[in-house]
Write a structure and sequence with these properties.
Number of strands: 29
Shape: rod-shaped
Helix content: 10-25%
Strand content: 35-45%
Number of domains: 3
């Protein structure tokens, strides 16, 4: 009877309407992937196979597949908003239950963990070597932002580039006194830091010793450190002595910090007739700092910025990919879980292989095309009406047969 055939068509059109309606409803959902209803025809199988005159028995919903095409990236300006360009997924963990998502609207909870709106924690690779910026890509863990101050770093090296005026008088016969400008030719100062992050004023003094020779002195917080160190220049004005960095001696701060032992690199110094001047003073120490912000690059490396100008790597966002993403199972809240059909997850980092890139300050919009869905809506409606007409026609035929006398 055509009633069942038409009824299957009504069910198929209704399913198509539900899928289309769900797509339209989630057109504004971050990271949502539209679905497509796929149908197949139905034939009743006889023992000897299908007859050449067999008529189909209708239609059935064979599958609802998701379309993992890239959605547009909407820029938000919030550094904790992340978008993936490519086929990867963010890895989330909820007390050991692992799921995957394209939604990157993350925030920081009260304990400093990076979580989504469902409270699931973003997974990342921990830092392995802070100096070299390497990560342990064999271990996944919860990404947690630093909430404590960044530790200070004591100054251990100073690079100084300066020019000492040629033809300066010989002051070697005059005892050096940092408080008496008549005992030296030129001075410059800079800030250095001890192991507790407290700053100290370091002053360098220079005076000629005749010809192409000079003496250099160091004072920290007004106290002379060590003895004078000789400098010598060649006829072309370049430094000939010392050939390596020098150390004046140690300075013991009064605040209980470790003694400062700084080496000074003067290899860029010159002696020209253009007068005294300083081109650069660079030192490697810094004070402690408080967290001011978080930066995330295209590779998913999360770095904390501190008030002392330093940046500290906290981890690298993990990205997962699947051989068959359409085989993943939806669990709601913009999340999927792995299945046998999807294949085993392959973990990596953004910027490598087919894991895509991470865009900080943006969110991936739904890939639903409203215009396309409205056309699908009209098509599904027409299919429903046509199948309803089949039922009406079959009913009229049946009534005619019944009325035969």
């Amino acid at each position: 009877m055509p009633f069942r055939t038409a009824l299957s068509g009504l069910n198929a059109a209704s399913a198509d309407l539900r899928v289309t309606g769900n797509n339209i409803a989630n057109s504004g959902t971050t990271g949502f992937k539209q679905s497509r209803a796929e149908f197949s025809d139905v034939y009743a199988l006889a023992y000897a196979g299908i007859s050449r005159t067999a008529v189909g028995s209708g239609v059935k919903l064979s599958s609802v597949t998701q379309q993992f095409t890239q959605g547009n990236i909407d820029f938000t300006g919030n550094n904790m908003d992340l978008a993936l360009s490519g086929r990867g997924f963010f890895v989330m963990d909820d007390s050991g239950d692992r799921s995957y998502t394209r939604e990157g609207a993350f925030q920081i909870d009260r304990e400093g963990y990076v979580v989504n709106s469902s409270g699931k924690r973003l997974q990342a690779y921990p830092v392995q070597d802070q100096l070299n910026g390497t990560f342990n890509t064999g271990t996944l863990g919860d990404l947690r932002l630093a909430t404590t101050d960044a530790p200070p770093n004591a100054t251990t090296r100073v690079e100084a580039a300066f020019n000492l005026a040629a033809g300066s008088p010989d002051l070697s016969a005059v005892p050096f006194d940092a408080a008496d400008p008549a005992t030296y030719e030129f001075t410059t100062s800079m800030r250095v830091y001890d192991s507790l992050g407290e700053s100290h004023t370091a002053e360098l003094f220079f005076r000629g010793t005749g010809g192409l020779g000079w003496e250099s002195y160091l004072a920290i917080d007004g106290a002379q450190v060590g003895a004078a160190q000789p400098l010598a220049f060649g006829a072309d004005g370049s430094l000939t002595l010392p050939a390596a960095p020098i150390a004046f001696g140690t300075f013991a701060p009064t605040n209980g910090a470790e003694p400062l032992d700084i080496e000074f690199d003067f290899t860029s110094a010159t002696q020209y007739g253009s007068g005294h001047n300083v081109d650069a003073l660079r030192q490697d120490g810094y004070a402690s700092g408080r967290l001011t912000g978080v930066d995330i690059d295209e590779g998913g490396v999360v770095s904390a910025r501190f008030t002392n100008g330093q940046s500290l790597a906290l981890g690298q966002v993990a990205v997962a990919s699947f051989a068959n993403p359409q085989g993943m199972q939806q669990i709601g809240d913009n999340a999927w879980v792995e299945t046998f059909a999807a294949g085993d997850p392959l973990y990596g980092v953004a910027g490598q292989g087919d894991f895509g890139l991470v865009q900080s300050g943006g969110l991936e919009a739904s890939n639903v095309d409203i215009a396309e869905q409205l056309v699908n809506l009209i098509t599904a409606q027409r299919n429903f009406q046509a199948n309803s007409q089949v039922i009406s026609t079959a009913d009229a035929v049946t009534q005619t047969i019944i009325n035969i006398r």
